[in-house]
C-alpha cells in the first residue's frame, strides 16, 4: 500500500503532528510506503515529493506550521465541471499511489469528496484554525488560535485598565466567529462580535458604556467578518471606503473610532493577524492531530474511503465526507446567547 | 431561589471560571441569590460564607486555584451509613438554601448523588485534573495539567538530548493515566507508563535502548500510580522500600535507577508535582469551566436536580449523577494501544 | 516622611512591581507614609489618591499594567516657561508630601528634573518599553516587550516557512529601534529595520531574495519609526499617503507590498501593537522593577533628591536626573553592525 | 584561521544561540573555518567533530539544549599536576586548530585559563544557569532558569492559596542562591533561603506563621544548597539521614515536614529539577548568548587570547580569564538584605 499525503490551504498548528501520527502508524505499524507532496497540489503538479518515514517526522509533534509546505494551488487545471478525472487518476497512477490523505479545511475536503466520487481512494484529515468544518467537534489548530487570542486579551486588558481605555481586538473568522467566541469567553470580554450575529453600533456602545459605569475598561473581541447591523454604519467588507479608496484597515480599525465617537471613551484597536496561526501547537491540538493521523492510517488499512477522521466527544470517528462538507459550521444561536446575556 | 456553591477536594484550574460563569448567569440573568462556602465543607460546618455576585467574580476567568478555598473536610460528621440526613437538611435550611452547586471530583459527586437521593436539590460540576470522572468527555483542569506536563516534556527533551540521557517524568494519576497519556502523546514520549497497563522492566528497558540505538535520547512519562509488571521489581506503592524504610521518592525516582541499571544509559528523574494543578487555566479549561457554570445555573432554574453538567462533544449536557459516579474513568485499551504500538 | 507615587505616560510591565517594592520598603522598613495618585497627574490635579501599604500592593509583582492608573495629562496647566512653581509647591504642600516618586519615561523624567531644579524633592523611576532612556542599562518593561515580540517572530516563522512567504513584523519604537533589535536578534530575523539606520528598498529586497535563494523564508522585523533611505520610496510618517489621504496602516503595511513587488515573493505584514505593552511582566522585569522601587525608597530615606534609580550592570545606582534626561538613548552603530553583517 | 568549539559541563539554555552567533560571525564575516566537538571533551578525545557553518546552525537561536552535545568528561586523562601539555598541544595540532572557543561554567573556564597559560589560544564563553561565574554580570541560561522557576511560583501560589497551605519550592543552586533570589523576588515569595545565608528553623517558621496571620499562604523558595542554621536541625547534605540511610529527597522534602511541625500549617514540597535547565531560552538569554558568540568570534580575529566574553552593563567585554575564574560569585549581603527585610 503506497499512500500520498498532501496539505492544502492555510497552515494550521498540528499539521506536523498529524503527518507524524499518520506516518508512524502507517509505515511502522501497517507497513505502508508513504510520500508527502511538497507545497500541496503544487508538488503534485510538479512532481515534487519527499518520502515519509520515522526519521522524516522525528521531533515534529510540537512544531508549528507544516514541514511539507502548503499552498493555495488548485488540484485541477480546469474548472471542476470540466475536470478530466481520467487524467487525474492517471497522474495518481504515475505516482504509484493506492491512497491519498488530504489535510485541509472546507475547500480541500470538498475536493476530497469529489475525488472520492470519481474513484480516488481518499481519507480526509480536517484542519482549520477557524473551526468551521462539519463532521468534527473541533479541528486541530483551533485550540492553538484560541489560546493565542486569549493570551492577547489578557495582555490588552492590563494596558486598557491602566489607561481607562476600551480595547478592541480583531481575531480571525471571516464567516464563522468561533475564535472570537471562545477566546472572548476565556478572556471574559464584555462584548464578542461575530459574523453570524450583527449588532448595532448603539448596542455595542451601550455595552462599552455600561462597563465604564461599573468602573472598568471594556474589552471587545471582534471576528474579522463581523458587520454592524443597519445601513448607517460603515463597517463594510468590500475593500473600499466611502470615498472609493482601498481600505487598509480591518474591522477593528474601523470599529474603534466609531466606538470612541459613540461613547466618548478612548478606544484602541489591535489586529492579531498571522500570529494566530503560527507557532507551537497546544497540547490539545498535538493530541487531536496525532490521533487524527493515526485514525487516518487505520482507515487506509481498512479501506474506509471517502471519510473524514473527525473528533466526536473523546473519540476519533470516520464520518462520510459527503456529510461533512458543503456547509460551513457556524456559531449557533444558543452558543452566542450563552455569552451575550452577560455582555456589558 | 437561593443557591449555595461549594468546592471540595483538590483544586483544579478553571474552578474560578466555573463559579464566575454560574454567578453571572445565576444572579444577573436568572435573578438568583447566591452564596459561596469558604473552604468547602469546612465553611459549611463553621458557617463561613461569602455572597456571590458580579463584583465578587470580577476578572476571575483566567485565575488559577479557587478564591472560595477548598478542603478535604468531609460533609458529614459520621460515616455515611449512619448519617443523620434530617440534621443535614436542617443545616441547609438554616442557610436558607434552595439548591446546591457542588464542584468536585469523584468523591464529591458521589456525595452529591447521595444528597440528591435524600432530597437535597443539587447539581454537580465535575472537576479534577485527573480526568477520571464519568459522565463527561473531559473535566476542567485536565487540559491545563496536560499542557503543563507537555511543556515540561519539551524542556526535559532538550537537556536529555544534550547529555544523551534518558529522562523520566512523573506526572499525576494515581489510578488513571490520562495526564501521562495525553502529555506523553503531545510530547512524543517514547514510553508512556500508566496505572492501567503494567509493563515489565525488561520491556521498558528495551524501549529505552531502541531509542538510543536510533541515536536519540528516550523520554519516559510515568503516571504516579504505575507499577512494574511481575513480582521481582521493587516499584511499589506501600511506602516502604526493601529494607522496611519509609520511601521518600515517587515512582520516577524508583524507576530511574532501575532503567539505568538495565540499559547502561544515564537516567534522570523529575517529579512534576503540585505545579501541575496550579496557575492560570488554559483557554480550553476557561471555556469548558465557564460553560459548565452557565449550564449549572440553567439546570437550577429548570430544577434538573441530581444531574452533572458534563461535556458531550461540543455541548454541555446534564447527566444523571447516578450514571456518572461510582466507577473511575480509566484509560481504555484502544487509547493505550494508539501509543504503545510506536513506543521505543 | 510622607511620599507620593505618581505614574505618567504609557504603561509598562513592571510598574506594579516597582510600586510594590517601593511600598514594602518605604512603609514596612523605613516607616514612611505613602500615597499613590490615581491616573497620574490627573489624580494630582483632581485630588484623587489611594493610600499605599502592604495590603494595597499584595500579589502585584506579576501583574501587568499599573493599578494606580496612568495618563498623559500634563503636570502643569501652562507651558513650562511660564509655570507657576510656587503654586505647584503649594499643591504639593496641600497633600502634605515630603517627597515624590515619579515613574515614567523621558518626558516624565524631564519633568522630574525640572521639579528638582525648583526645589521639589523627587526621585525618578525609569520606565518605558522602548528602552530609550539614558542613565540606565535597561528600563523595566523592555524585556517583556522584547519577549512578546520574540514569541511573535517564532510564531510567524512557522507560517512563513509553510507558505514560502516573507513575513514582516512591525514592533514599537518610534525613535529608537531597541525592541526590533533585540527581538529580531532573539528570533534570528534576516533583516532588522530601525529608525536609526535607514536602508534602501533595494537593500531590503536583496536580503529577502538571498534568504529565498538559500531555500528559506525571510523574517523582517521593522520598528514603527523606520524610514526607507532615498526619496523614491513612499514609507513616510506624515500620516498621509501619495494621494493626500490619511494612512491607516503602519510601516509594515506599507513595506510589505513594496517588498512583494521588488522580489516577487509573497509578503505579509503583522502589526504587533498594544499586546507588546500588556500582560504579566517577565521575571527579569519583575526583579528589575522591584529593585528599582526598593532603591527609590532608600534614596528617599537618604535624601538623594534629583536622581534616577538606574540599572548599571547588576546593581541599581542613583544617577543625577540631569544626566539621564534630555537626549534619547538610541541604538548605536556597533550594535546595529552586530546584526547587519549577517542579514540576508 | 581554524577554530574549534567545545562545550563542557551541564547544558544551559542559550548554548545553541552562542554557537550560532559565533559561527555566523566567524565563518561568514571573518572567513574562519570552524568545527564543533561532539559531546565536549569526549568528542575531542575520540575524534568526533562536525563542521560549523550557516546551514549547521540554521534556526537554532531559540532551541534549548545544545546540538553538539555536552558531557562531564575531563579534558585531561591525568590529574592537572601531571598533565602532559605537550601531548595536549599535539592533539590540538592534529585537529589543525588555531584557536578554541570553550563554552562552560566555572570548571570549564578554569581549564580554559590553564590551557591559555600553556600556550593554547583560547576564548571563554561563560555559561551556567547558576549565574555563579565571575567576570560577567549574568551568564546565559540564568534568565531562562529564573523565568521557569518564577512561573512555577505563580502556579504553586494559586494551589497554596486554595488550600491554605505553605508551599516550598526547591530550585537549583548548590553553592550560590541566585536562582532562588531572583525567582523568589519575581514571585513575591515570603521567604527565600539561599546557601550563603543560613537561617534557623525558628526564623523560617516565624515568617510562615506571620503570613498565615495576615490571612495568606506562605511561599518559600529554597536553593538546593541551603542549610538550616544551628546544629539541632537535620537538613544536611551528606546524603545520609539520622539513621545512616541514604536520603532520596532534597532540601525541600526535608524542610517541608519541619515547617509543618513547627507551625501547624499544612506544607507541601516541590522540587523543580531538570525542567529548570531545559527548553527554549528566553529572549534575554538568546540575545546575550548570540552577542557572546559574536564577541568571541571578534576576539579570535583580534587574537585576544585568554579572555572571557562577559556582559558588563549593556556591553560584551573581554575579561582576562584569570580574573574571572577561581572563586564563585555568590549572593552578596546587600542583595539578600533587599529581600530579607520584607520576609514574612
TrEMBL record, chains A, B, C, D:
<comment type="subunit">
    <text>Homodimer or homotetramer.</text>
</comment>
<dbReference type="GO" id="GO:0042802">
    <property type="term" value="F:identical protein binding"/>
</dbReference>
<dbReference type="GO" id="GO:0048029">
    <property type="term" value="F:monosaccharide binding"/>
</dbReference>
<feature type="binding site">
    <location>
        <begin position="72"/>
        <end position="73"/>
    </location>
    <ligand>
        <name>ATP</name>
    </ligand>
</feature>
<feature type="domain" description="Phosphofructokinase">
    <location>
        <begin position="2"/>
        <end position="299"/>
    </location>
</feature>
<dbReference type="InterPro" id="IPR012829">
    <property type="entry name" value="Phosphofructokinase_III"/>
</dbReference>
<keyword id="KW-0808">Transferase</keyword>
<dbReference type="InterPro" id="IPR000023">
    <property type="entry name" value="Phosphofructokinase_dom"/>
</dbReference>
<dbReference type="GO" id="GO:0003872">
    <property type="term" value="F:6-phosphofructokinase activity"/>
</dbReference>
<feature type="binding site">
    <location>
        <position position="268"/>
    </location>
    <ligand>
        <name>substrate</name>
    </ligand>
</feature>
<feature type="site" description="Important for substrate specificity; cannot use PPi as phosphoryl donor">
    <location>
        <position position="107"/>
    </location>
</feature>
<dbReference type="InterPro" id="IPR015912">
    <property type="entry name" value="Phosphofructokinase_CS"/>
</dbReference>
<feature type="binding site">
    <location>
        <position position="165"/>
    </location>
    <ligand>
        <name>substrate</name>
    </ligand>
</feature>
<feature type="binding site">
    <location>
        <position position="10"/>
    </location>
    <ligand>
        <name>ATP</name>
    </ligand>
</feature>
<dbReference type="InterPro" id="IPR012003">
    <property type="entry name" value="ATP_PFK_prok-type"/>
</dbReference>
<feature type="binding site" description="in other chain">
    <location>
        <position position="224"/>
    </location>
    <ligand>
        <name>substrate</name>
    </ligand>
</feature>
<feature type="binding site">
    <location>
        <position position="106"/>
    </location>
    <ligand>
        <name>Mg(2+)</name>
    </ligand>
</feature>
<keyword id="KW-0479">Metal-binding</keyword>
<dbReference type="InterPro" id="IPR022953">
    <property type="entry name" value="ATP_PFK"/>
</dbReference>
<comment type="pathway">
    <text>Carbohydrate degradation; glycolysis; D-glyceraldehyde 3-phosphate and glycerone phosphate from D-glucose: step 3/4.</text>
</comment>
<comment type="similarity">
    <text>Belongs to the phosphofructokinase type A (PFKA) family. Mixed-substrate PFK group III subfamily.</text>
</comment>
<feature type="binding site" description="in other chain">
    <location>
        <begin position="172"/>
        <end position="174"/>
    </location>
    <ligand>
        <name>substrate</name>
    </ligand>
</feature>
<comment type="function">
    <text>Catalyzes the phosphorylation of D-fructose 6-phosphate to fructose 1,6-bisphosphate by ATP, the first committing step of glycolysis.</text>
</comment>
<dbReference type="GO" id="GO:0016208">
    <property type="term" value="F:AMP binding"/>
</dbReference>
<dbReference type="GO" id="GO:0005945">
    <property type="term" value="C:6-phosphofructokinase complex"/>
</dbReference>
<dbReference type="GO" id="GO:0061621">
    <property type="term" value="P:canonical glycolysis"/>
</dbReference>
<keyword id="KW-0324">Glycolysis</keyword>
<feature type="binding site" description="in other chain">
    <location>
        <begin position="128"/>
        <end position="130"/>
    </location>
    <ligand>
        <name>substrate</name>
    </ligand>
</feature>
<keyword id="KW-0067">ATP-binding</keyword>
<dbReference type="InterPro" id="IPR035966">
    <property type="entry name" value="PKF_sf"/>
</dbReference>
<dbReference type="GO" id="GO:0030388">
    <property type="term" value="P:fructose 1,6-bisphosphate metabolic process"/>
</dbReference>
<dbReference type="Pfam" id="PF00365">
    <property type="entry name" value="PFK"/>
</dbReference>
<dbReference type="GO" id="GO:0047334">
    <property type="term" value="F:diphosphate-fructose-6-phosphate 1-phosphotransferase activity"/>
</dbReference>
<keyword id="KW-0963">Cytoplasm</keyword>
<keyword id="KW-0418">Kinase</keyword>
<dbReference type="GO" id="GO:0070095">
    <property type="term" value="F:fructose-6-phosphate binding"/>
</dbReference>
<dbReference type="GO" id="GO:0046872">
    <property type="term" value="F:metal ion binding"/>
</dbReference>
<protein>
    <recommendedName>
        <fullName>ATP-dependent 6-phosphofructokinase</fullName>
        <ecNumber>2.7.1.11</ecNumber>
    </recommendedName>
</protein>
<feature type="active site" description="Proton acceptor">
    <location>
        <position position="130"/>
    </location>
</feature>
<dbReference type="GO" id="GO:0005524">
    <property type="term" value="F:ATP binding"/>
</dbReference>
<feature type="binding site" description="in other chain">
    <location>
        <begin position="274"/>
        <end position="277"/>
    </location>
    <ligand>
        <name>substrate</name>
    </ligand>
</feature>
<keyword id="KW-0460">Magnesium</keyword>
Amino acid at each position: 500500500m503506497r499512500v500520498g499525503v498532501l496539505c492544502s490551504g492555510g497552515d494550521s498548528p498540528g499539521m506536523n503532528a498529524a503527518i507524524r501520527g499518520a506516518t508512524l502508524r502507517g509505515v511502522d505499524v501497517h507497513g505502508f510506503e508513504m510520500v508527502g507532496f511538497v507545497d500541496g497540489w503544487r508538488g503534485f503538479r510538479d512532481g515534487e515529493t519527499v518520502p515519509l518515514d520515522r526519521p522524516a517526522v522525528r521531533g515534529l509533534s510540537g512544531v508549528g506550521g507544516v514541514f511539507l509546505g502548503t499552498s493555495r494551488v488548485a488540484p485541477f487545471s480546469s474548472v471542476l465541471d470540466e475536470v478530466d478525472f481520467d487524467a487525474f487518476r492517471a497522474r495518481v497512477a504515475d505516482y504509484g499511489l493506492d491512497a491519498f490523505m488530504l489535510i485541509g479545511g472546507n475547500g480541500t475536503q470538498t475536493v476530497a469528496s469529489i475525488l472520492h466520487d470519481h474513484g480516488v481512494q481518499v481519507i480526509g484529515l480536517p484542519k482549520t484554525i477557524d473551526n468551521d468544518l462539519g463532521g468534527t467537534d473541533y479541528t486541530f489548530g483551533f485550540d492553538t488560535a484560541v489560546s493565542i487570542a486569549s493570551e492577547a486579551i489578557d495582555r490588552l486588558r492590563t494596558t486598557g485598565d491602566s489607561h481607562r481605555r476600551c480595547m478592541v481586538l480583531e481575531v480571525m473568522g471571516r464567516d464563522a466567529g468561533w475564535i472570537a467566541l471562545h477566546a472572548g469567553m476565556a478572556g471574559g470580554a464584555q462584548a464578542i462580535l461575530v459574523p453570524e450575529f450583527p449588532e448595532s453600533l448603539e448596542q455595542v456602545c451601550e455595552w462599552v458604556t455600561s462597563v465604564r459605569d461599573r468602573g472598568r475598561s471594556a474589552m471587545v473581541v471582534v471576528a474579522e467578518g463581523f458587520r454592524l447591523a443597519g445601513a448607517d454604519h460603515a463597517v463594510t467588507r468590500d475593500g473600499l471606503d466611502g470615498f472609493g479608496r482601498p481600505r487598509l484597515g480591518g474591522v477593528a480599525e474601523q470599529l474603534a473610532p466609531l466606538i470612541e465617537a459613540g461613547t466618548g471613551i478612548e478606544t484602541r484597536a489591535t489586529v492579531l493577524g498571522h500570529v494566530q496561526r503560527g507557532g507551537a501547537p497546544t497540547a490539545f491540538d498535538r493530541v487531536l492531530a496525532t490521533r487524527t493521523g493515526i485514525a487516518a492510517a487505520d482507515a487506509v488499512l481498512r479501506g474506509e474511503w471517502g471519510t473524514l477522521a473527525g473528533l466526536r466527544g473523546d473519540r476519533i470517528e470516520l464520518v462520510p465526507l459527503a456529510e461533512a462538507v458543503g456547509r460551513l459550521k457556524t456559531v449557533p444561536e444558543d452558543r452566542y446567547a450563552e455569552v451575550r446575556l452577560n455582555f456589558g
